[in-house]
Every structure is written in structure tokens, then in C-alpha cells.
Prior knowledge:
The structure is a single chain. With 257 residues, the chain is of the alpha/beta class. It folds into two domains: 2-27 and 120-239, ComB-like (putative 2-phosphosulfolactate phosphatase); 34-112, no CATH class. The protein has ten helices and eleven strands. It has helices at 30-39, 51-64, 97-100, 112-118, 131-140, 159-175, 183-195, 200-206, 208-215, 219-225, and strands spanning 2-7, 21-25, 44-48, 72-78, 81-82, 104-108, 122-126, 145-150, 179-181, 235-238, 241-244. It has a seven-stranded mixed sheet with strand order 9-1-8-2-7-10-11, with helices on both faces. It has a four-stranded mixed sheet with strand order 3-6-4-5, sandwiched between helices.
Amino acid sequence: MRYLNAFALPELASDLPPTGVSVAIDVLRATTTITTALRSGAERVLPFETVEEALVAKRGLVERRPDDADKIVLGGERGGLPIEGFDFGNSPDLYTPENVEGKTLLFTTTNGTKAILSCRGIVLLAAFVNAEAVVRRILSESAETISIVCAGTNGGFTEEDLLLAGLLVDRLTRRSSEFALNVQAEVAREFWRERAATPLVEALKASTGGQNLRKIGLTKDIYDAANLDAFEEVAEFRVGEIKLDSRFKRQTNVQTH
């Protein structure tokens, strides 16, 4: 028997096993954007909880490798908007090969990077854009416990993250009968099944995160995040950095749009 647990907020996942698989979710938009950046050729992504930590890390990297200063970029958001002095915000379409290929991206967001940093064990990043690839990767692992950790927003759960958690639980349990679910995983699966017939982009527009993005004029980001199963790549966080799992990385040049 394997355990498949979902947590609507990182605070609810305070005792994750160090030998399990953790799946971090921030659909709108951190895990979508990070996966897009890596798919566009970013060498690695370093996640930080605070703006100050990201700035300090950049100064340290530049001091150690001054000749590569132009290959170290800052990205992220606060309150959904770009951070003053940063190179990029948190919109997936900003992370093109022209902008990030071969570069180290230092990244901090209001909720998503906190969720990533709270995870333990084998840490994967999930978004709707790579949901199927994440499911395949989870099924390839032998860990006893799978923990799906939703970022939420400012301490409250968000429908968009719970929706993806439910999709992952639904696909995993349809393919294997060996999973025992916690209550939140059962709730998430039912939440997804009740809404599966609704066009995904419409469900995301109506979600908490979707409404917040629409208020600040970033509706296009919702469409990018709703591109279900468009990517084959899986991003993995280990030893302080996020990179693509080479087993899932495409060997040919790809276009992100």
C-alpha cells in the first residue's frame, strides 16, 4: 500500500517524510512559469522565499562569477505584479529562449516558492501544462508516500491549486489501486471530477487566483496556465536548485508557444 496525500496549504504539510515524493503546485503561476523557463532553456532556477534573499544570492553569484553577470537574472512577483528592479515578472510568456536560455534564474513569488521550499524528499513541480508528465514520473517512483502540496494564496486555499491536485489524484488512482488517500486527497479528487466537464480556462478564470490576475490585467497568463498536458518536461527541486528531469527533457529544440 502506498499513501497519496494532498494538502490545501503548505502549513498543513508540516511533517512530510524525507524519503517520499512531494509535488508542489502553484498553478497561477509559479510552477507554470518555472517549468516554462526551464523548458525555454534556463540552466537552473533558484527559488527564494523573500525578495531580500534573492537579491543577496545574486550579489554573491555575481561576485564569484563577474564574467557571467549577464547570465544571472531575477524573476518573480509580489501581489501578482513584477518586483521593482527585477528582470522579469511571473508571467509564463516572458520566459522565452531569447530571455532565459543558458541563464540562472533567481525566483521568488508571494506563495509558490514558499510551497516549493516546504517540500521534502523527491520534489517535483506540477502545473496543468505538464500534469501527465508529472503523473508518469510519480508512477515511476517507488516511494511509499506521495504528498501533493498546494501553495494557496496568503494563507487561504485556492480553487486552481486544489483543482490540479484533484486531477493528479484522479489520474493516479485510475491507473493504480495501491494508493490510500487522506481526506484532502479525496476532497480534491471529487472537486476535480465535479468540474472536469467545464473548460479548464473558464474554471481557472473563476478561481481565486484567476480573478486576482484578471483584476491586474494578466488574463493571458490564465490561458497559458490552462494549456493542459502541453509539456513533456518535469522540473525537480534538489540541493537548492530546480532543473528539468533529464529523463523527460526533449532532445530537440522546442517552441514554448
